Amino acid sequence: MKVLFVAGDPKPERWTVPIKELLPEAEVHVWDANGPAVDADYAIVWQPPEQLFEREKKLKAVFNLGAGIDGLLAVPNLPPQLPIVRLEDAGMSAQMAEYVLHQLLEASRGMETYREQQRQGIWKIHRPIKRSEWPVGVMGLGHIGKRVARTLAGLDYRVNGWARSKHDLEGVSTFSGTENLPDFLQSTRVLVNTLPLTDETRDILNQQHLSQLMPNAVVINVGRGEHLVEEDLIKAIEDGHVARASLDVFRQEPLPADHPFWQRPEITITPHISARTLRDATLEQITGKIQAHHNGQPISGIVDPSRGY
Ligand code: NDP
């Protein structure tokens, strides 16, 4: 079995040494833009170059080093029949639940107010929050959204969840399909986006949808930058309908130095760190699936190209 590692890590041995340990019979190669074909059976990739699919004609599956496969699907010559396997959780959902909880608490528990009071040496206690005033709506109930929704529901927040298909989640009011999106939005104050980027979800955080949220809304985007219509968010903040936003992903990354988001006190910016790829958990999952596929066993996490995720 031949495995090809194709990701722009300047130290690829951080990946290939453990891959070799986990798959002792495999011949493990690192992508060389100027090298010959290695006739790999499996590629482990992050945003691979087009030449990969021109050169490697014997691939049986491609394993993506992330949950979102929008970058891989954008490669124009990706063979349509080639199975794509995305990362399933692999330690990301816990990180995401922490991130979203942190951003929610900043708003709901007024942490910024207490930080400002500390700067001024003020000891002042504000009234306890009413959880009923902070209903959260999680868009996407997959590996990540489900964990986020369950975590917040476990802390007695009112949680709504929205997905394409119907879900049954304890403690979460679930909505499905575009026809139920208005009901979901209208009962949500804190909107958390964990959707994959597809033709259907691109630009979904737009004026029409943001305006349906409850007043003093909060937007937390950990999906993809292309989900958010940036000027619509700024307009909603200026109108006072959206009180604050926490953004981890952007249309252009790194966020350009002159981007208006940097100057907005209502916006918290993080550089795409809400859920990092954890090398050990990731490689354990991917190599386990490569071995299973090699042995002719079924594997989970194969992307459905017709859905785009
Ligand atoms: P999953 O595929 O497990 O879940 C996707 C969820 O989105 C499903 O519940 C699915 O519905 C729902 N969905 C997809 N399309 C639609 C639609 N048109 N309308 C309504 N719901 C829809 O993905 P993960 O949870 O593993 O990951 C989600 C995304 O999170 C990734 O694609 C990536 O973009 C982002 N991400 C961001 C990271 C970061 O660091 N910021 C890190 C990791 C992931 P259904 O259940 O009905 O199929």
UniProtKB/TrEMBL annotation:
PANTHER family: 2-HACID_DH_C DOMAIN-CONTAINING PROTEIN, D-ISOMER SPECIFIC 2-HYDROXYACID DEHYDROGENASE NAD-BINDING DOMAIN-CONTAINING PROTEIN
InterPro entries: D-isomer_DH_NAD-bd (IPR006140), NAD(P)-bd_dom_sf (IPR036291)
Gene3D superfamilies referenced in this protein's UniProt entry, alphabetically: NAD(P)-binding Rossmann-like Domain (3.40.50.720)
Keywords noted in UniProt: NAD, Oxidoreductase
Domain D-isomer specific 2-hydroxyacid dehydrogenase NAD-binding stretches: 102-274
Protein's UniProt name: Putative 2-hydroxyacid dehydrogenase
Keyword Transcription: no
A GO MF label: NAD binding
